[in-house]
Write a structure and sequence with these properties.
Order of helices and strands: HHHEEEEEHEHEHEHEHHEHEHE
Bound molecules: S-adenosyl-L-homocysteine, iron/sulfur cluster
Structural class: alpha/beta
Largest sheet: 10 strands, mixed
Number of helices: 11
CATH superfamily of the largest domain: Aldolase class I
Distance between the termini: 34 Å
Strand content: 15-25%
Oligomer: single chain
CATH class of the largest domain: Alpha Beta
CATH architecture of the largest domain: Alpha-Beta Barrel
Radius of gyration: 21 Å
Helix content: 25-40%
């Protein structure tokens, strides 16, 4: 059993079966999430017999580092982890220079929720590899704790967590939410809800459920097309959930939470980057509290679409803005180590 799969109550139940006093659960919890311990010996406030039991019954290293790679500018690190059943996943840390533009020392961690992905978006390396399995909540949490420990050695901390690595978080809804709850716990890691972002391909029932739960977590929707036929050509999920249904679910989300929705848009040259597409998108999003986050397509082996150049990207942005929809063009990051959006495939870059 992975220690990070336990919430505080489950840890309490386990300790009860070992005839340990209830307060020990809190001590273990604080050791894990406040002190960032990752081996039983570090829990020096526990009796030796209990440390022994922890070591014998629980795994403190449920994901093993196989490799890490740094981008040439040193700002992005991608780590490849192996799960106990040999599946591979990746997580990416992006550092933003405190002295430049808007990032101001942000340390954004991009984590995976599944090994592979079942959604099959044609432009995405994870989609191209197919689905292996859901991650447990503890396997999701363990990615964060790994980077939290690494940054602590430099007297730094993770400032933002995005569910934008491998997999579709709303396909693995319960485990993704359980991971957020565990990391958000005020007596534990205490990571603020507003510093998480969940990105989804647009699973409508889950968007509505998420809205009903009124979480303060940011929501991003991968849209990439303003027309159903065009979206279906690159995103099989559109067969099931049409653009209108997705946008209606987003309107419901805004109504419930009063929070702004982000629409993600990978700019593919000649496919979804024309001023005409921008105008169609703007008319669909009219009146919705939202903004568009566009990024020139990152290259993947299974898709031959080309990235939009800077000049056309700026025209796309201006066209949207003239129609009243805010848009930012994101910088591409970590492309040299295949750590960019949609490039994670659980294999080292060569
Ligand atoms: N499954 C979720 C989250 C992971 S993907 C989702 O699809 O939203 C994170 C983001 O990267 C998504 O917006 C996705 O559409 C985008 N993406 C996928 N492949 C890409 C590529 N080749 N270039 C740029 N963005 C890509
Ligand atoms: Fe899955 Fe997201 Fe990639 Fe689509 S873009 S295949 S939903 S990980």
């Amino acid at each position: 059993m992975n220690i990070y799969d336990f919430d505080l109550a489950a840890l309490g139940d386990l300790l009860k079966t070992w005839d340990e006093p209830a307060y020990r659960a809190k001590q273990i919890w604080q050791g894990l999430y406040q002190h960032l311990y990752n081996s039983p010996e570090q829990f020096t406030n526990l009796p030796g017999t209990l440390r022994q039991k922890l070591a014998e019954n629980l795994s403190f290293s449920p994901i093993q580092v196989k490799l890490f790679q740094d981008s040439s500018d040193g700002q992005t690190r991608k780590t490849l982890f192996e799960l106990p059943d040999r599946h591979l996943i990746e997580a990416v840390l992006m550092r933003y220079d405190p002295n430049t533009n808007s990032g101001k020392g942000r340390r954004t961690l991009c984590i995976s929720t599944q090994a592979g992905c079942a959604m099959g978006c044609v432009f995405c390396a994870t989609g191209q590899m197919g689905f292996s399995r859901h991650l447990t909540s503890g396997e999701i949490v363990a990615q964060v704790m790994y980077y939290a420990r690494a940054l602590k050695e430099e007297q730094q901390a993770v400032t933002n967590i995005v569910f934008m690595g491998m997999g579709e978080p709303f396909h693995n809804y319960e485990n993704s939410m359980a991971a957020i709850d565990r990391l958000n716990d005020a007596d534990g890691y205490n990571f603020g809800a507003r510093r998480f972002t969940i990105s989804t391909v647009g699973l409508v029932p889950q968007i509505r459920k998420f809205a009903d739960e009124k979480r303060q977590v940011n929501l991003a929707i991968s849209l990439h097309a303003a027309d159903d036929a065009e979206r279906l050509a690159i995103m099989p999920v559109n067969k099931r959930y049409k653009i209108d249904d997705v946008i209606q679910a987003c309107r419901y989300y805004v109504e419930k939470t009063h929070r702004r929705v982000t629409f993600e848009w990978a700019l593919i040259s000649g496919v979804n980057d024309t001023p005409e597409v921008a105008r169609r998108l703007a008319s669909r999003l009219k009146g919705l509290l939202c903004h568009v986050n566009a990024i020139p397509l990152n290259p993947t082996t299974g898709f031959d679409g080309q990235a939009t150049d800077r000049q056309r990207a700026m025209i796309f942005k201006e066209t949207l803005e003239q129609a009243g929809i805010e848009c930012t063009i994101r910088m591409r990051r970590g492309i040299d180590i295949q750590a960019g959006c949609g490039q994670l495939a659980g294999a080292p870059a060569v």
